[in-house]
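Slide 14.
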Amino acid sequence: VYAELARSPLTRTADHLSRASDLLAQGKWDDAAAVVLLVLPSATNAIDFARGHEILAGVYAEKRNLSAARSELSISLRAVPEYAPALLALGDIALMAGDLNEAFSRYTDAGLALPAYSKLNWVSAALIDVNLPLRAAILFKRQKQSGEVERALDDGRARTTQLTRLAPGLSFAQFALGF
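Slide 15: predicted structure.
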């Protein structure tokens, strides 16, 4: 799949993981997994290791193998306990499984981890912060709590607006205002 990647020196693990994340987003799940499995042994820091396992969890979740996805996320969290993307993904998996209480708990955990995680990756932490209210809106909608849905969406808009004021160059913040 990525013959050049297999031949390249594995000194830029984070770049390869970004490529794998892009492949996952494009629905190229097997390609994403192949890249992660190729570079994961070269991960020299806990964040890359955690992110690699988070991407593998995404592959498993897309294939509806939720048990394997949870296992990968557990590995991520053992490596970096405050790794908020893994906590967010655990919430998404619980939501996929229809366990709204578990989803709410994991989203809460992700929010609580943000102060520590932001020291590791403030851009990712900011993205999670503006997305948490959207996840809450989904939960409230499934519970048929329409007033809470609107409050959660308003909170998401307010957080996104605040982020665009604080960091106007972040393209995802501008994009998020369109939700």
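Speaker note: The chain has a mean pLDDT of 86.
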